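for the record, two folds in this file. i put them one after another cuz i was lazy. first one right below, seq on top, structure tokens after. the second one comes after a little note so u can tell where it starts
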Amino acid sequence: MLRIPPIRVSGRAEEKAGRPAPAREFPVVHEDEGLLAIDKPAGVAVHGGSGVSFGVIEQLRQSRPSARLLELVHRLDRETSGLLLIAKKKSVLKAVQDQFRERETGKTYLALVLGDWPASRKVIDVPLHKYLLDDGERRVRVTSADDPDGMRAITLVKVARRWASSPDGRGPLSLLEVTIKTGRTHQIRVHLASAGHPIVGDDKYGDFERNRELARAGLKRMFLHAWRLRLTHPQTQSTLELQTELPAELQRFVDSL
């Protein structure tokens, strides 16, 4: 999902938290003097914390020691792949984050879900409520409009493709283009699951038995990919449209259907 990240931890604090992150570059989708867009692989956190020693941003800082500033513009779940924006100037960071807050950007994901998604269902406007499990792990659920702790969440859904049957022989699958107008924690995952169509491979809100069966058929991760992103570049005032293709492991699974 799309969320504004916390304030950067200083380099000294990062060193105290553990060993320095190993330097690593990621596939670059776009780069200019103010903005960097990368294609984040699944399984990599965007930053350290919550039991993770380091993430994308710490590794990038190590690989680019001469960079004056590298800051996450937003976040993606660890299990989600795709477009991730990093600001190289404070003015760009603030301007793009303001666009996200004001819902002036367009961010579209590809998600494979269980079942036959009804083409008539195009908008999910259901508030979400964050809570913690007994072990302290964060979770999200749909809630009612009168929940004082509920946060409005808007998700737009378009069916890209359907398959009448899945490799485990237990019903259809739908590939969705999902655009979020708000950036709540786990928004897409919870909205789709609450509609009765969980994302294939989702280990928090999905169908765990089906996940195991489809993993044996070749899909060993959550099928959620940050696919397209549109924003106004703060420095040029021109529209910047970015896109990343499905990772090889997801494309192979689609090709096998």
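(here's the note) second protein begins now
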Amino acid sequence: MTSTIEPTTSGSAAPSTGPSVQPSRAKALAVLCVMQLMIILDGTVVTVALPTIQSDLGFSQAGLAWVMNSYLIAFAGLLLLAGRIGDLIGSKRVFVAGLTVFTAASLLCGVATSSEVLIAGRFLQGVGGALASAVILGMIVGLYPAPAEQVRAMGVYGFTSAGGASIGLILGGVITQTVGWHWSFLINVPIGVVSVLLALRLLKAQPGLGLGKGADVLGAVLVTAGLSLSVYTIVQTAEPTAELLRTIVLAVVSVLLLAGFVLRQARVTQPLLSLHIFRNRQVTVANLVVVLLFAAGFGFQFMTALYLQRVLGFDSLRTGLAFLPAPILGAVMSLFIGPRLIARFGGRALLLAGLGALLAALLLMSQAPVDGSYLVNVVAPLLLVGGGTGAAIPAAIMLAMSGAEPGDAGLASGLNNTAQQAGAAVGTAVLATLAASRTAVQATEGASPVGALRDGYSVAFVAASAFVLAAIVVGATLLRRGARRRRSSSPASARTTASGSRSAAHPSRRG
């Protein structure tokens, strides 16, 4: 990681730099979180606008899914590569490039007049989002190396990630019914331009290792193709035209590509993904928990939005506003309560508590009836999800990042973001497929259309609860007690030393 606040003078004493450093550092954190918020928002803001987009641009029902899928494929496929590029050429360069591409792609989506143009714009948004998002976590760690400050900064980032999806549903409903779906994308343009200007001023560029130190081109091709094909294989299973044989062939090819990538990383001198990062049990287990957590969390939001619209009859505006309790409580938990609980009990305890709340929410929603009430059947699960994800997501991210060496900050950030996006893609695709299959079976057995839909969503909620239960078991048995508190001082010390020495031989200041 390389991006920090702009220093005053290299030889100035601590008392003279303190007052100016803190505001600049907070502004830099705000820029990073704004970009992350835009990325998360664009993953969900179009969800409630899809029927309107389908009508305006003439999408088929199967083709409409690619408004979401084209974004996910580009995003998930490029995250690891983007994180490594950040290590090699500098995080600031990669972040600004990604922010610029994302902003330009948002403009393209906003002015799209055909389905092809919108899908192309969404793909480019995924490219820009991957470039920027892959280096954000490492940059935050660089801005806040001290453990106590890092907990608070990660709380802000965690709220951005946890609350962003719910906020996206709210904004999507409001924007679609007031100024039109185009503004779901156009709103990113002025925000993106301002963010680019602030990033250029607030984030300090430091040289990376150089492309010659680790540009594994073949490895990049293998992992990008493998991850992209894997996500494509998952999301296309929800299409009515999906065939079992074709799906199996795609899955086998994607596994072979990823296996080839792993073999190459084990043998190449300068690997794109140093496999030693997986030797740390905390990093591996925490990222697995992140996959399961995001699979369930995004699945909850997707299925709850459908339940509100297609079972309770909410329009897009009411659906968006209905999610308001989740981000409010998520903000309170992530920004105020969570950091204090982590400092006192450790990240593992807070993670398990948050997962428990999410599990309860999913089980409650699985029992929501056809003639349900928003106040009786939906508000309580939303509050549980807001508090649960507000606690679990920052804790899981901190546990995933804490085991990485300083020189692997970009790699660890890209790996964690890949886990998030893979979880979101898997959760949405698997749960949507289960819901559609169950609904079809119920319809053939004579159930009413609304009753069949409700039964399909219930099965999906139960499946999502299985994801969370697996995360609880994995976290409780494989994550060490107090691991976060024991390890927090070591990386911070290493980063502090590295920032002072800037030794060319030390890998901790790359990218």
